[in-house]
Amino acid sequence: MNDRRQPAKSRQFFWQIFAALNGLSVCSLLAAYFIAPSDPKLLRALMILLPVQFVVSVILALRLRRPVDVLRLALQRIRLQLRHRIQMLSAQKNEQDALLSSMAEGVVAIDAEMRIIQVNRAAARILQLDPKAAVGCLLHDLIQEPSVIELIETVRRDNQSAERDIELKGDRSRHLQVQAGPMNFDAKAAGVVVVFSDVTRMRELEGMRRNFVSNVSHELRTPLTSIQGFAETLLNPAVKDPEEVRKFLQIIQRHATRLGRIIDDILTLSSLERDAENNQIELKIDLIRPVLQAAVELCGKKAEVKKIKIELTCAEEISAPIDTHLLEQAVINLVDNAVRYSDEGQPIRVEAEQVGSEIFIRVIDHGIGIPEKQLPRIFERFYRVDKARSRELGGTGLGLSIVKHIALAHKGSVEVQSQVGEGSQFTIRLPSSQ
Fold first, then answer.
1. For residue 280, which phi and psi values (nearest 5 degrees)?
2. Measuring CA to CA, which of 129, 297, 301, 433 is 20 to 30 A from 183?
3. Domains identified in the chain, total number
4. CB of 339 within 8 A of CB of 399?
């Protein structure tokens, strides 16, 4: 409790000194009148003690032999000057508070005794503090992260700025970039200012980029290695059997086709992200059924091979703001997956309905299903439930990620429900035109 009263005592002491100085000014004015108003030495002393406008007013009043005016003018000037200074200080404080509150970075100011003297809104959110209650408290009592304390101690010891990346553990791990610098007044160390930047999202994106590069490299390496290996085999003069040559060429063709599909899907994803970021995807109100019909027809031949019947249910009048080409691509990806992972003769249903202000497009199969623990990750790039089977069936691992980005480009979403051995239901949710 005594620690928190220190700032109040300091302010009280400041105002006492300020009042004493102003009292001295009044006394000097009175002395100027009663002692020697025309004494040049005294006037020079007054010029040192008081502002010029005070001295001019006093001299005029003394020359007119009106002593009451001397005191009145002095008090009026002091009152106006005090009011002006208080207004300036108040305006400066409000500007400082507004500036700190609007900053995305967290700012904490610490005095020479390691007590918190300022916390902005962002710092309170990042460090999970009460900004008002934190002022006056020792830093060690509120922040237990050793790396932060060590950084501040280093800045105090070396009197130089320093920075460090730290990770705060908790319900959700957060990555912070912490920069600290000394506060110096009159060449003396008065404390430390610490700036916290939340770079969690940046680190997550960097991790996603690294994983993407790693996955792309792995996915491209597999078909390229096969193509290279069988091409070298064909160059061997010992290989003369036409059937064997044909077999090797078919393998090369299959891997080259898969390589082309991977590159096409990567380019599609890149184009989707770029166009969505630059608002280049133009949505027009159009009917949903023709889009679904086109997707079903394009997947029909592959379904016929497995004797799978695709049923379409969609009212003619349902419409929404869409990009017909992109939405068709999303439905094709879902139907194609349903055909790949369904047993022979199992039906697939494609349906669309409007519920309130939303359009629901569903692709329902009776295939192998997806384990529950893997459902949250199936829309990630290159994520496969069964990697070996996916490659065997010609999947690139990017189809569902493309569906997700197309749904987002339509200001919608995609979700999945699935049970192992019973099948899956993928649902694209779009805002309707009504």
1. -100, 0
2. 129
3. 4
4. no
Q: Which of these three, 280, 307, 332, is where a domain ends?
A: 280
Please tell me the distance from the alpha carbon of residue 58 to that of residue 164, in angstroms, as a whole number. 60
| Helices 399-409 and 242-277, packing angle to 10 deg | 20
* Cβ(337)–Cβ(400) below 8 Å: yes
**In DSSP terms, which residues pair with 118 in a beta bridge?**
109
Kindly calculate the radius of gyration of the chain based on its CA atoms and give it in whole angstroms.
Answer: 38
Identify the residue whose tokens are 């991790």: 207
Backbone angles phi, psi at 139, to 5 degrees: -60, -40
Contact between 207 and 167 under an 8 Å Cβ cutoff? The reply is: no
149 and 92 share a domain?
Answer: no
**Run of H or E residues at 207:** helix 200-234
Cβ(168)–Cβ(176) below 8 Å: yes
Per-residue pLDDT tens over the stretch 170-198? 667 788 888 888 887 665 667 888 898 88
Contact 165, 177 (CB under 8 A): yes
The whole domain housing 47 covers: 6-99
Residue 58: pLDDT band with limits 50, 70, 90: low
Q: What are the tens digits of pLDDT across the range 299-352?
A: 888 899 899 999 999 999 899 999 999 999 999 999 998 998 888 889 999 999
DSSP track, 241-283: -HHHHHHHHHHHHHHHHHHHHHHHHHHHHHHHHHHHHTT----
Three-state secondary-structure class, residue 382: coil
The confidence score (pLDDT) of residue 332 equals 92
* CB distance 328 to 295 below 8 Å: yes
* Res. 9: pLDDT tops 50: no
Give the pLDDT confidence score for residue 360 in this predicted structure: 95
Based on the domain organization, do 300 and 418 belong to the same domain?
Answer: yes
Name the helix (H) or strand (E) containing 301: helix 300-305
d(CA 299, CA 315): 21
The reply to whether 194 and 171 lie within a common domain is yes
Quick one: 342 and 355 in the same domain?
A: yes
What length does the chain have?
Answer: 434
Token code pair at residue 4: 């928190």
CA–CA dist 158, 160 (Å, integer) = 5
